[in-house]
């Protein structure tokens, strides 16, 4: 299935898709998104102040762009790829399992709380005033 979903201010979305679905989701200010399922591709653009609670299964790809002040709570399973770009003042809480790849670019004043397991690769570029809390296990590359 392919979903093209545009919502207005204050909407809440609870979306369950089956294996191999593609989601293109654009939301306005203050939206909450709860999105799962195995093999899904998510292209998610949110406006200022959005909260994302995203749990994905094995092999998912996430392309996530957020504006100022967004909070991301992202839990991924084995083999996920995350491409995350955030603007000033964003907070990221990212927990990944074995073999995940993270490409994270943040702007001034971002806070990152990143915990990774064995074999993870992190590509992290931060600007002035960033705080990084990174715990890695055996075999990680930073």
From TrEMBL:
Organism superkingdom: Eukaryota
Record's protein name: Uncharacterized protein
Organism: Branchiostoma floridae (Florida lancelet)
Biased composition (Basic and acidic residues): 31-41
Residue segments, region Disordered: 1-142
Bias-annotated ranges (Polar residues): 1-30, 51-142
